[in-house]
Each structure stands twice: as C-alpha cells, then as structure tokens.
Write a structure and sequence with these properties.
With 127 residues, the chain is mainly alpha-helical. The chain has one domain. It is 86% helix and 0% strand. Helix 1 runs antiparallel to helix 2 and helix 1 packs parallel to helix 4. The N and C termini lie far apart (33 Å). The structure holds protoporphyrin IX containing FE. The site of protoporphyrin IX containing FE has 14 residues, from helix 1 and helix 2.
Length: 127
C-alpha cells in the first residue's frame, strides 16, 4: 500500500473520531478535554491528511520505508499524546504528563524526519 493511502485512511477515521468527541463535549457541556480534542484533530486529521497529499505528489517517497516509518510514528505518537493530554485535563496529571511528554517528544523527532524527507524530495535537480 502507498504511504499516502495509509495517511488518507487513518486521517479520515481520526477526523471522524475527533468530531464525535467534539459533539460529545458540546452535548454534555463539559469542555474540559478540549485541548486533547484539538490536538487529535490537528495532528491526526489535518496534518496527517496534508502529509498524505505531499507523499502522493512524490511517488518515490510514497513507496519508501522512511515515509512509512514517519507515518506510523506520527499516528502512534498522536494517539499517545492525545490520551496524555486528555488525562491531564480530566484531573489525572500524574498519569497524563508522562504520556503527553513522550508523545510530544516523538512527534518533534518525527517532524524532523518529515522536514528531512520534504527537503530532500523538493531539492532542485542537478543541472
Ligand atoms: C463535529 C465537529 C466538531 C465539534 C462538534 C467540535 C466541538 C468543539 C468544542 C465543543 C470545543 C470546545 C470549545 C470551548 O470550550 O471553547 C472545541 C474546541 C476546539 N476544536 Fe473542535 N469540534 C469539531 C471539530 C473540530 C475540528 C475538525 C478541528 C480541527 C481540525 C477542531 C479543532 C478545535 C480546536 C483547535 C479547539 C480549541 C479552540 C479554543 O481553544 O478556543 N474541532 N471543539
């Protein structure tokens, strides 16, 4: 499977889950976990879908193991961070902070990998 396909499929499912979460917050009137809802939607829906568009535009990258690794790490770290942030804002900071910290650190490292992939694949071809 192309990496972009994986990105698109997981991104739309994550977007759906994030919206259901938003509806639950709106319906209950309890907005305590809004930072976790926001992180899930922005990292797991918008950013992942955008990465999928980039990979689709770069076919060599779209079949590379590095892009697959980047995507898998992004998905796992987004989930870990979202759970961590949700725990923090649900009154369980002891359980949530390590998860949010680990998830955030992996996301930054993984973003560095994505930066390198984007830089490499958008470099001007040698004349
Ligand atoms: C059915 C769809 C959605 C519903 C019902 C919903 C609902 C909500 C609710 C109730 C809040 C809390 C607002 C507050 O307490 O100030 C919120 C916050 C937020 N949502 Fe959603 N949401 C939805 C989709 C999305 C999507 C798709 C994104 C991003 C791609 C998103 C990003 C955010 C952000 C960034 C915040 C924080 C806003 C702030 O801090 O002022 N939401 N959402």
């Amino acid at each position: 499977m192309q990496v972009s396909t994986l990105c698109f499929r997981i991104a739309v499912l994550t977007g759906l889950a994030g919206m259901v979460w938003g509806m639950a917050m709106a319906g209950s009137g309890d907005h305590a976990t809004l930072p976790a809802h926001a992180h899930l939607n922005l990292l797991g829906w918008l950013a992942l879908f955008a990465a999928g568009v980039f990979y689709r535009l770069h076919p060599a990258l779209d079949r590379s193991r590095l892009a697959l690794l980047q995507t898998i790490l992004w998905v796992l770290a987004t989930l870990v961070m979202t759970v961590g942030v949700a725990l923090i804002y649900s009154g369980r900071p002891d359980a949530g902070e390590p998860l949010a910290g680990i998830g955030g650190a992996v996301l930054v490292a993984d973003m560095l990998l994505f930066v390198a992939l984007v830089w490499r694949s958008t470099a001007a071809p040698a004349a």
